[in-house]
Design goal:
Blueprint (H helix, E strand, L loop, with lengths): L1 E5 L2 E5 L7 E5 L7 H14 L3 E4 L19 H10 L7 E7 L9 E2 L2 E3 L1 E2 L5 H8 L4 H13 L6 H9 L6 E4 L2 E4 L16 H11 L11 E2 L9 H5 L4 E5 L9 H21 L6 E5 L13 H19 L5 E7 L7 H4 L4 E4 L5 H11 L3 H8 L5 E4 L8 E2 L14 H8 L4 E2 L2 H77 L1 H4 L3 H8 L3 H15 L4 H7 L5 H11 L9 E3 L2 E3 L17
Parallel strand pairs: 3-14, 3-15, 4-12, 4-13, 5-7, 5-12, 8-11, 13-14
Antiparallel strand pairs: 1-2, 6-18, 9-10, 15-16, 16-17, 19-20
């Protein structure tokens, strides 16, 4: 800004050079910051700038006065004296879509939404309150997967679709159930449960039932065309969050961050035909001196905004005007981004003392600030110059006696409307999204129940098949054992009659149809029985033969005491021991 003194008046003119960043410091009321910012904005508009008011911190729509003509006598007299024309401006008020809009007449407001797929990484960090890599990746991956037509509920459900959830029984099968208190997501005790539950809690800043349906499908009718808005130089765009509960500071701050992200994105892509002036009503709300949690993210992005603007160069021509009540309520690093700082009437001697100490003011400079009249400013660095009083705006001033809605009803009635149709449409769309998401969740439950049922059936069939195989094996084994027992009985009988029938071991084996080595082994056992070996001795020697089989041979042989003296093994003769001497476990061929 350049101060020009003319005809005894301290007039304010504007240097419309690029990357001009102005900060006004002064206590509310006495400093007349809003009126000064409006007058500066009017000068920028005359120079061809597109004016965008980024926030309405007091929820008073102070900047909407730019859409009203001056009507108070003292203002009309001042404008005439200063040779300034009367002028009201075309304004556009934008507000995030919400169901908390009152059902009475309001100043015409365009309610808008933002595509889920356009969520930037800084916005994600802000929503979850940290820069946690895992959570950011989970959200980013989901954004990349969802379709352009997917709504907020589908986005949330997709994040939790593969997680275990609280159970509900369908046809006797326990499956994950949708939680209507968590956007109908089917969430339970999966490995990522904590991450997703924390994310869900973060998104509840839009309302536990999504009462502020701001994040929408890409094709939703209320999404803004940012290029179109920024190219309407003749219209002053005013963003307001006045219908968002003041206590929900995080949500209100998020909307400011979202605007910064969208505007910087539009500027970086090109296609904006006019330089931009961004106005921030109370900058300490965005970048407090000591930011905590999510405030750190908006603070960093605000500083990043200045870096981007500087790097864009003169062709983009983006400037800012900001205001704050206290000089030290804003981070020092951000203060360094301002090209011009103007000090107005400060709120108390303590603030003046602190500023004087930090700026190494002389007593003369300190006194110059101390005696400032309401509405007057001194430029920082030139504190001993003559103070100036900004010219009054060409548009209306605030009238404390008349609410701004009544002012519009009287002087600009076309800007008054009732929002019921919009509220009805928002409620209808939200109900549709909720019902569709609940239906999808229940269908997923049925699908999972069917999958679990099929899986159980398959496992039971496999189990039954395995059981059947084992039963068949057992039957075959039993049949084999019975067959072997019969063969062994026949062998023992033939061995008893060996002297009478004249059969050799090999001939006995051939007659029965088994290996002659088995006959040899049985013949050895019967020989040891004849030598007075006890059943226990035999079982200890032949540990590789089932005890019950040895017992059967022992009992059957002892029915008739026939004592073969020699054992044939093929064409060979073998002499056996005649005393029950203990030996190691036999290594004979088993059967």
């Amino acid at each position: 800004m350049i101060i020009k003194h003319q005809d005894g008046l301290s007039k304010l003119a504007i240097d419309t050079r690029v990357d001009g960043h102005i900060l006004l410091v002064g206590v509310a009321g006495d400093a007349h910051k809003t009126s000064t910012m409006i007058r500066i904005a009017e000068k920028y508009k005359e120079a061809g700038y597109k004016i965008v008011v980024m926030m309405d911190n007091k929820d008073a729509l102070d900047f909407a006065r730019m859409g009203l003509p001056a009507y108070q006598k003292f203002q009309l007299d001042l404008l005439k004296e200063q040779g300034e024309p009367l002028e009201s401006h075309k304004i556009q008020i934008l507000h995030p879509a919400t169901l908390t809009i009152p059902n009475h007449k309001i100043i015409k407001t365009q309610f808008y939404t933002n595509p889920i797929k356009n969520l930037s990484e800084p916005e994600i960090h802000f929503i979850i309150g940290s820069q946690d890599t895992g959570s950011t990746k989970l959200i980013t991956n989901t954004i990349n997967i969802i379709k352009d037509s997917d709504n907020f509920y589908e986005f949330i459900q997709l994040m939790g679709r593969n997680l275990n959830a609280k159970k509900q029984s369908i046809k006797g099968i326990s499956v994950d159930a949708p939680d209507e208190n968590n956007f109908n997501i089917r969430l339970g005790s999966g490995s990522d449960k904590k991450d997703v539950k924390d994310i869900l809690e973060s998104f509840k800043m839009f309302g536990s039932k999504y009462e502020t349906p701001f994040l929408t499908p890409k094709s939703y009718t209320l999404n803004l065309n940012w290029n179109e808005i920024l190219n309407q130089q003749d219209i002053i765009t005013i963003f307001s969050d006045r219908f968002i509960p003041f206590g929900n500071r995080k949500l209100r701050l998020y909307f400011i961050l979202n605007r910064i992200e969208n505007i910087m994105n539009a500027l970086s892509k090109g296609g904006i035909r006019h330089p931009i002036l961004l106005i921030f009503d109370e900058i300490s709300f965005i970048i407090p001196y000591r930011p905590v949690g999510y405030q750190e993210i908006t603070s960093e992005e605000f500083k990043n905004m200045y870096r981007i603007i500087r790097n864009m160069g003169e062709s983009k021509g983006t400037s800012t005007i900001s205001a704050t009540q206290e000089y030290f309520s804003v981070q020092e690093q951000v203060m360094e981004s301002f090209t011009e700082i103007y000090i107005g009437k400060l709120g108390g001697i303590k603030q003046l003392e602190r500023l004087s100490k930090a700026s190494s003011y002389s007593s003369l400079e300190k006194d110059a600030i101390k005696i400032l009249k309401p509405g007057y400013y001194l430029k920082k660095g030139k504190e001993i110059d003559n103070p100036f009083e900004a010219l009054v705006p060409q548009c209306s001033l605030t009238d404390q006696k008349i609410p701004i809605t009544e002012m519009f009803e009287k002087y600009n009635p076309e800007m008054i409307e009732r929002p019921e149709p919009l509220i009805a449409q928002l409620k209808k769309d939200l109900k549709t999204w909720q019902e569709e998401s609940l239906h999808t969740a229940k269908e997923d439950m049925k699908t999972e129940a069917e999958r679990i049922s099929k899986e159980r059936k398959r496992k039971n069939e496999e189990k039954n098949a395995t059981k059947k195989v084992e039963e068949v094996k057992a039957e075959l084994k039993q049949t084999k054992n019975e067959s072997q027992d019969k063969n062994f009985d026949r062998i023992v009988e033939l061995l008893k009659e060996k002297d009478m029938n004249g059969l050799s071991n090999r001939q006995i084996a051939n007659r029965i149809g088994i290996s002659h080595t088995i006959v040899n082994s049985i013949n050895k056992i019967t020989t040891l029985i004849n030598q007075a070996w006890t059943l226990e001795d035999l079982q200890l020697r032949y540990t590789n033969i089932k005890p019950e089989r040895i017992t059967k041979i022992y009992n059957q042989w002892n029915k008739t005491n026939i004592e073969p003296q020699k054992i044939e093994s093929g064409n060979e003769q073998e002499t056996t021991q005649t005393t029950p001497e203990k030996t190691e476990a036999g290594k004979d061929n088993t059967f």
